[in-house]
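ok so I'm stuck.
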Amino acid sequence: MRTGLTTSLLALALLAPHAYAEDDWGDDAWGDEEESGPALHGFIEGAVGGRTSSDPALIDDDQTLAELRARLESETYLGDTRLSGKLDLYTDAADGGDNGLQLNLREAVAEFTLADNIDMRVGHQVLTWGTGDLLFLNDLFAKGWVSFFSGRDDEYLKAPSTSVKWSVYGEDANLDFVWTPVFTHDEFIEGERFSYFSPLAAAQVSAPAGKVVPEEPSESFSNGEFAARLHGTTSLLGSNSTEWALYGYRGFWKQPNAINSSMQPYFSRLNVLGASLRTNVATGIGHTEFSWYNGADDAGNDPLVPNNQLRFLIGYEQELIPKLTLGLQYYLEHIQDYDALAANDGNSPYRPDENRSLWTMRLTYRAMQDNLTLSWFSFYSPTDQDYYHRPSAKYRFNDQLSLTVGGNIFGGDQAHTFFGQFEDASNVYARIRFSY
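replied:
not stuck anymore, here's the structure
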């Protein structure tokens, strides 16, 4: 997401090295620290990516990634308050280059303690929780799907939001509460860099005619997002370190998957309750997660509003041999009120299955004193008959310089399924990064 001038200036204020004179702050202002201010660090990265085949729905479809990016990052303390900032400056030729130099504020945060057992984190920040590996059930914080599909670093899958986070620590459990005053949606596929399948048009569409321009919720207290997690550890299932969590969310679906009476996409209301466990199983780590998606706008019989869902995830990760790790996950998505949907969608050929299942596999191998990392992540849905593969290789020349190459390979038997619609978006990419 792009930031305005005011927010960018705030980030620059956090990032700029300070050199305060003793006459201004006194000898005790920074304790015994000898440094004049925070050190500035970050990286410079060049990235390119291109499609493996043409996309007939797009006019200019050769490049999926063509950018030069510089990260500025720093932190400092004002008394007991920690201030931190991360700012990206970049230019991207894959969007036509019309936007010139752009700013992306990743973090502008103040962290402090309210009481012995209460911490606060306020500002623009990336938030995440849950047990899934690239599968998100109770993690309803914004995601950057365009970045993810383009081949940017996995960091950019998690999009920031301007939020207030309270963390309350107890003897048996801890409570995290997050308030996001202005709803922050996903960086969704809108038809510019990647086309998508439109059930209304019964075809693959793209910008400008097919550009998704959703109706945004008004900026009011009632339209803010509220998320909570109660979590702790316990002795369970033969393990003394079983992690458990309960989740709650009140806000909106993160993508505009509802259609109003004017045939404009919008973000329908959503409430979510869930739970998760993570524990040692045999010589590996197992996890499971559950969530109930209750759409406040859904009565079950409107095909233009997403139905309520039950979501379930179970996974396991283990080191097979030294340096080689395997992770497997099974995910199930059950549509509630399916009979009502089937009775009111005009017998649509694009009706989703009542139960959508998905398998994932992650293989990671490290070699050459961990300087080389080979990775393969695959999504495969036996119900949709589609897939998404993410191979990558990263080589670290030294502590400063690294090269990453990889791909995003989509496919499926039908053009309207989730991964199948992006078959023409398949791409390969390369990134070279210098860290300082």
